[in-house]
Amino acid sequence: MQGRSCGLCGQTRFAEARLVAAPKTRRHVSGRNSRCITRAAASGPKLMWEALREAVDEEMEKDPTVCVMGEDVGHYGGSYKVTYDLYKKYGDLRLLDTPICENGFMGMGIGAAMTGLRPIVEGMNMGFLLLAYNQISNNAGMLHYTSGGQFKVPIVVRGPGGVGRQLGAEHSQRLESYFQSIPGVQLVACSTVANAKALLKSAIRSDNPIIFFEHVLLYNVKGETNDNYYQDLERAEVVRQGKDVTILCYSRMRYVVLQAVQELEKQGIDPEVIDLISLKPFDMHTISASVKKTRRVIIVEECMKTGGIGASLSAQINEALFDDLDHQVVRLSSQDVPTAYAYELEAATIVQPEQVVEAAQKIVQKQMAYA
Amino acid sequence: MHGRALANALRRATSSRAESSAPVLNRLWSRNQQTQAASDDSSLLEVDVVPYSTHRIDSPGTTVNTTKAELQQFFETMYRMRRMEIAADMMYKAKYIRGFCHLYDGQEAVLVGMEAALTFKDSIITSYRDHCTHLGRGGSVLEVMAELMGKANGATKGLGGSMHMYKVENHFYGGCGIVGAQVPLGAGLGFAHKYRKDGSVAITMYGDGAANQGQIFEAFNMAALWDLPVLFVCENNHYGMGTADYRGAKSAKYFTRGDYMPGIKIDGMDALAVKNGVAYAKEYAVANGPIILEMDTYRYHGHSMSDPGSTYRTRDEISSMRQLRDPIERIRSLLLNNELLDTAELKKIEKAIKKEVDSAVEEAKAGPLPKEEMLWKNIYKDTLGMHMRGRDSKTKIKLT
């Protein structure tokens, strides 16, 4: 009988199917990389991709049902290094290099999740997951409901989105809002090194299907993490307390807003900055407490003007907090255009700190004019 | 369509009929070597089935062992499935069942033969034509009928409907509404079996219409690449809704469409051929990796209740299938010709099953409607104390 080589370990096999076990024996092969793997989460500043990697590593070590699948998550080291060298520790089956077939491997991850495994499915870019949209919507989001509660889908769909540096229209999509209407999914956007690790750990532990948005430009942000810390996926973060205006933002826009805040402080304006973190469901508890205090809201998002996350949030704030508002909800979002390649046009597509400063000035000065 | 497809269908029908018309009793012996009356339940019966077509794999043998007990169980289960689908037809026309209703009558042998070769530890996922799959996986007629009527005691508490029946404890991962979307899920079930090294297989069922979906080839590739224990079962009933198989596919030899993956074409109207083929395939898959099984079968009803089923095929074709290849009649002939059961006993069985189905229908009709709070249940596994907004955006509903 002709032997066939196994697609995972390369060995020639005749009859028995062989699992490629996590090569424990490889640990003794020393070198900088393997020391990095076995070292426990160290203190000291680290890059966001390292923090995300720690989250994946820690959860995979704790729970053998956690596994990763996606393009180039294994031998290549992860296109943004989030799974760098983890295959050496956990083996090829738990760090599964998939072929380029988003619809197929998303479905596969969801099927595996239905049996009780906890797959982390990586989209190399969240934009590619449009190919997998049917699986995410019907089979991840809705399955717990349509099965009368029989099946849960504890899957994490993660990857970078947002506008990068001249990556072109198809690789600069900001499509968080495309997923927000799907019943049954949670949407989370991380922004700092600390919350990236803590949120990803929680997302992996969660029994709900989580769509976890990272950002292409944030992987090399430096910061500290908290050891063994799980952050609530559904809570917003109050980044800066203030009284003049509530600025709601998420992901990279947090940094854009904070840059604007530096300028606003010089002008004597005292904004309260809240990082949404949870894009679905919104943390209306934290948001309404802030709105009741400041009575003015600016939403700053990278998502599209039409139908973006901000559009939903704006409607919800209007409906729930109309009587607590002194000004219409101001919404700064990306232009409804494909992201151009040219640097200046790309910059003009998304919200810049100048727009935030201008909006805050206007909203506060209007108030002062009536005072 | 009519001429060529009809000729093909009749050719298939008559070739299989030639094998099964004569009493296919080759050898009959009892376990303790005494010549006993053929009505002994455990006596082995050898039955010849039509040859399998194969692709990159040796054929299974064409002599299948069975027993009276097994044949009787086949008959009962298939007859129950048939009566249930006919009842669903009547209830749909009487407007107790609404929406989409895809009936399985004619295809019963596929499920019954398959389950005979599997255990409930193996996983199954299928398409929207899943009422009988639910039965095969240990569900009851009441669960199916109540679900079709949208009652709270249905298979998925009235929330899923015809296309979404599930039974988690028996590893039935459901029907699926979107054509072909279940196939990558099935690859995931196979992945999980391999991950857990539990020696079971995943059966992923899809139709000839779905067989042209890109995601199926994505699933083929991944399953073959990683040697996942998956049986890709293509139920070829020759029509993707209203489009004949050869009108939708450049190659309608679905068992070869896996290219590098082996495949077997099985007479899907013969429960014994199916049992034999699936057992062979399961052994192969556990040891080697995925395999395609094309079940040559036929549905008597149209695609769904809104399809009369006669605008794209002739009534002659349908009735000749019933006469020459009906799966229940085949088993009935085997039982009668081998004197395992007589006409009166079979009539008794049929009567009991008709009664069972009828009373399940009545019980389903009288079943409770889902409570309003079910609207908000099971949206999330972990509800996080979330509040949802009502239609007016003002009403707040706390998720429990």
From TrEMBL, chain A:
PANTHER family: PYRUVATE DEHYDROGENASE E1 COMPONENT BETA SUBUNIT, PYRUVATE DEHYDROGENASE E1 COMPONENT SUBUNIT BETA. It holds the Pfam family Transket_pyr. This is pyruvate dehydrogenase (acetyl-transferring). Transmembrane segments: none annotated. It catalyses: N(6)-[(R)-lipoyl]-L-lysyl-[protein] + pyruvate + H(+) = N(6)-[(R)-S(8)-acetyldihydrolipoyl]-L-lysyl-[protein] + CO2. Its cofactor is thiamine diphosphate. It comes from Symbiochloris irregularis. Signal peptide: none annotated. InterPro entries: THDP-binding (IPR029061), Transketo_C/PFOR_II (IPR009014), Transketolase-like_Pyr-bd (IPR005475), Transketolase_C (IPR033248).
From TrEMBL, chain B:
The pyruvate dehydrogenase complex catalyzes the overall conversion of pyruvate to acetyl-CoA and CO(2). It contains multiple copies of three enzymatic components: pyruvate dehydrogenase (E1), dihydrolipoamide acetyltransferase (E2) and lipoamide dehydrogenase (E3). This is Pyruvate dehydrogenase E1 component subunit alpha. It is an enzyme of class 1 (oxidoreductase). Tetramer of 2 alpha and 2 beta subunits. Its EC number is 1.2.4.1. InterPro entries: DH_E1, PDH_E1_Alpha_Subunit, Pyrv_DH_E1_asu_subgrp-y, THDP-binding. GO terms for molecular function: pyruvate dehydrogenase (acetyl-transferring) activity. It comes from Symbiochloris irregularis. Its cofactor is thiamine diphosphate. It catalyses: N(6)-[(R)-lipoyl]-L-lysyl-[protein] + pyruvate + H(+) = N(6)-[(R)-S(8)-acetyldihydrolipoyl]-L-lysyl-[protein] + CO2. CDD domains: TPP_E1_PDC_ADC_BCADC. It holds the Pfam family E1_dh. One of its GO terms (biological process) is pyruvate decarboxylation to acetyl-CoA. Residues 77-371 form the Dehydrogenase E1 component domain. Keywords: Oxidoreductase, Pyruvate, Thiamine pyrophosphate. The lineage of its organism: Eukaryota, Viridiplantae, Chlorophyta, core chlorophytes, Trebouxiophyceae.
